[in-house]
Amino acid sequence: MTTGSGPAARDWVLHVDLDQFIAAVELLRHPELRGRPVVVGGSGDPTRPRTVAATATYEARAYGVHSGMPLRTALRRCPHAVFLPSDPPAYEAASARVMAVLRGFPVRVEVWGWDEAFVGATTGDPEALAADLRQAVLDATELSCSVGIGDNKHQAKLASAFAKPAGIHRLTGAEWAEVMHDRPTDALWGIGARTARKLAGLGLHTVGRLAAADPAELARHFGPTNGPWLRYLAEGRGETEVTTTPWVPRGHGRETTFPEDLTDARDISACVAALAEQVARDAAADGRTAVRVTVKVRFAPFLTRTRQSKLPGPTADPATLTRAALAVLDRFDLTRPVRLLGVSVEYAPPADAAYTLTTLE
DNA sequence: TCTGGGGTCCTAGGACCC
DNA sequence: TCTGGGGTCCTAGGACCC
């Protein structure tokens, strides 16, 4: 830990991002695979259509394999790769061990998915803290991580990407313009390909240009909340509060893509019923009730449609949810082949609801 | 490269009411 | 009476992220 003289202590946001998390966990369980091309995804069968890679090791990437790629394509590109099934409970367990290590420090830890956490800390030397966090995670779990340091979550998140792999990087308001202004807008956390293309159409190709754009103009094109938010991101601003309050899920769902299209209406109904029952069991296990049910149908080749309905009252009863889901399914025109079915619910807020509200500062 | 599964939040339009 | 405007709820879809 750091004490004594030096820069005055102040608040920092750190972003801890595990390096190649899923692959790293798998290599710990299968040390003999170290150095070999490994692809993780689906049930691990690379001949099954319509499954994609969750991750690929650097050795597999050398063959052009990457996450999101269909396993059948990965197999074609790298026939000698080892294909492993995805094992979410194992990743969950590894993640929990990492978060426990972080919580051992005098900091606030906000878990942000399996392989990420924001850390709020008051210190005069954030690099020293970051190095301590990195080393403690490595010692306790054998997992490597990168740490970004910023004034807010947005900066810290981008900084950890600059730090990869196994590094530490600081990106604050002092460095923002120099580092970010010439980059494309989709370098920002929250701007993807679609929005970047739309911004480019307005002549806003870079972060610097977006940071100087007219908020009213942005609001006209992107909506009253999203428009000004885009400029806010480009200015390097972001949420500064790191909260240890556990996240309360807003909803939950299950969906399945079939290796071959479904055409029989009875098969489709049976699948929706099974998904609805599973979602009901999940909700009950979470101690939550549903207030709205949504059915998702993806038709061949790739046309996705949803229908939803508000339930008469909150429930986690499997029979009630199944009836509701099947009634919603009835509103689809099911004459085309179906490649995916999904059922999801919106949860009722728990009685002691403490939803985190986020506002622009 | 024929394209997973699990989420979150925002927007827009129509219904309905006063 | 042929027609205003605001507020809220509901629904479908889009965009983004891990």
How would you summarize this macromolecular structure in one to three sentences?
The chain has helices at residues 21-29, 58-61, 71-77, 88-103, 126-141, 153-163, 173-180, 193-201, 207-211, 215-222, 226-234, 265-286, 318-329, and strands at 10-18, 38-40, 55-56, 82-84, 108-111, 116-123, 145-150, 168-170, 251-262, 290-299, 303-315, 338-347. With 361 residues, the protein is α+β, with helices and mostly antiparallel strands. The chain has three domains: 1-171, Alpha-Beta Plaits (2-Layer Sandwich), CATH 3.30.70.270; 180-234, DNA polymerase, domain 1 (Orthogonal Bundle); 251-347, DNA polymerase, Y-family, little finger domain (Dna Ligase, domain 1, 2-Layer Sandwich), CATH 3.30.1490.
Compute the separation of the termini in Å. Answer: 32 Å
- Tell me about the largest β-sheet: 5 strands, mixed
The shape is globular
Q: Low-confidence stretches at least 5 residues in length (pLDDT < 50)?
A: none
Q: Report the sheet-strand fraction.
A: 15-25%
Which strand order do you get reading across the main beta sheet?
A: 5-6-1-7-8
CATH architecture of the largest domain: 2-Layer Sandwich
Would you list the SSEs in sequence order as H and E? EHEEHHEHEEHEHEHHHHHEHEEHE
Domain count: 3
Determine the CATH superfamily of the largest domain.
Reverse transcriptase/Diguanylate cyclase domain
The whole-number mean of residue pLDDT values reads 94
By DSSP, the count of extended strands is 12
- Our Rg estimate from Cα atoms comes to 23 Å
| Helix/strand structural class | alpha+beta
Number of helices: 13
Helix residue percentage: 25-40%
CATH topology of the largest domain: Alpha-Beta Plaits
State the CATH class of the largest domain. Alpha Beta
GO molecular function, one term: DNA-directed DNA polymerase activity
EC number: 2.7.7.7
Cofactor: Mg(2+)
Subunit structure: Monomer.
